[in-house]
Amino acid sequence: MKLEEINIEGKKIGTHEVSDQVFSLKPRKDLIQLVINWQLNNQRKKKGHTKSRGEVKGSRRKIVQQKGSGGARHGNITAPIFVGGGIAHGPRHRGQTRLTKLNKKVKNLGLISALSSKVLTKNINIFDEPKLDTFKTKSFNNFLSKLESKSALIIHHDGASEKFIKSMKNIPNTKRIKVVGTNVYDLIKFEKILFTKEAIKTLEERLTK
Predict the structure, then answer these.
(1) What CATH fold (topology level) applies to the domain 2-44+96-207?
(2) Which of 17, 45, 109, 165 is deepest in the core (most CB within 10 A)?
């Protein structure tokens, strides 16, 4: 299939042939959600998980009689006031799942599904890297405004011009990443996806091996 190629003025200057195996498959929402959950779970900070008095091991027998001992009233040894008992008001996971491992094949299929879904909504373009010595942030900001998009993700190759990369800094609702960092969460989060020619070629080679 072919994707539109646009220049710094936001105008279509041609098309770029891309692999049907990566950009023309039927998107699987279940895989996209699975990979996103895996990414978000790995970003969360590890939290402790304490056991309440109902979860610790121990006898449920009442340790002393209710009255007549001259001491305080107690139930069983799992109470928080005893050594080895439950913890009162400790940190809890509260049902959050911890998906720590995901097969490489599933990750790639989720990425392909995310790319294919963006193609269906016509939100992926090839961006022709400008060969200008005085390329500034204002120029790139004007370019994004012409796209009429709420947010944009720019995926560039390793050898991209330093001036081109710096021009994308400090622009609201945009993010720039190297092609090696292409991920499902960012593809879904941002409305418009812009690839440089070299970046999309590298990504295709990685996903079609």
Answers:
(1) Ribosomal Protein L4; Chain: A; (3.40.1370)
(2) 109
